[in-house]
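pasting for ref
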Amino acid sequence: MYRKFFLMLIGLSILFSGCEDKVKPGMKKASHMLKIAASTDIAKREKKPFIYECTGTIESGKSSRISSKLMGVVKKVYVREGDQFQKDDLLVEIDDRQVKSAMKQAESALEESKRALLSSKAFLKSASARLNLSKITYKRYQKLLKEDSVSAQEFDEVEARYKQAEAEYSRAKSMVDAAVSRMKRAEAAYGSAKVRAKDSVVLAPYKGRITKKMIESGDLASPGTPLFDVEAEELYQGVFFLPENYIQYVAPGEKIAVSIPSSGGGNIYGVISRIDPSADQRTRTFKVKVDLESGSKFSSGVFARGFFPVGERDMILVPESAIVHHGQLIFVYIVDDKNIVKLRLVRRGSRSTDQSVEILSGLNPGEKYITHLPANIKDGAFLEGKNE
């Protein structure tokens, strides 16, 4: 009997000891949970600069269309679309035979006008000498006539020769003036012909690259015919359209952050260079141009985001490192009062100037969240210690 009672006591003790190891349904012992270590922070609402994220496009800060200045057959095109070039590099060569012929004609006309000017000046010099002599003779005969030393007929002959000398001098002077005018026109024509001769080679206006080629070897070029579209390298700007209710907060000279997803890098910075004075009537937005950092290399037309500080407001901010992306959804990991990590769906707003993210809903002031996500983090994990 005592032996049976003893065995019952042993069985009951084993049974109770087994019950002590059990936990309530739906609960898991902390000793069996995944344990992680991570830094945390407390969500709080604070007044911060409000950043409006504005979409836009990258454009070249300097672009040009190069056109032909003379008529002629294109002999050779030295560049293709996408090619880079330095200032004064040869881009196109146009047949210059007609231009050279015109330049020779202009040169001959100039030489002829110079000879005509010399001849007219010699004639003027001779006419001036005859005029001076006839003037002296005329004055002497005037005196002699008063003294009755010459006849009236002799005086009339001298006077007629004097007036003829005056007329010849005036004609010679007019001839010189006309010759000077003809020579100036000939010089202008020759100078223009020389310029056209230089226009037979098209040089790069600055360092850049070809964005569009519109001419081929053998084509006939004429004044105004477009040859290339070019843009300067390392001079780019972002073009953004800012809503009218935010335009009062920005001004030329202000520095802003710009993100270009296709470049794969982080933010770069630019300075607002121009704000259009009037808004677009359809979209109620203002065009804002932002000159990007010198030396940046992009492609015109790519997508960009501009982050414009537009005042301040109360907001909950978390660092980018706290954000979890699942497709189009955004989450953060919060920590409850039992140090259990839970994945929480949130709705984000804009970025802050310090690269933080505004949380519009899903995270309340006073809640603890994980700021930097460890590699082994998991919903339901146990956070060891207090790492605020």
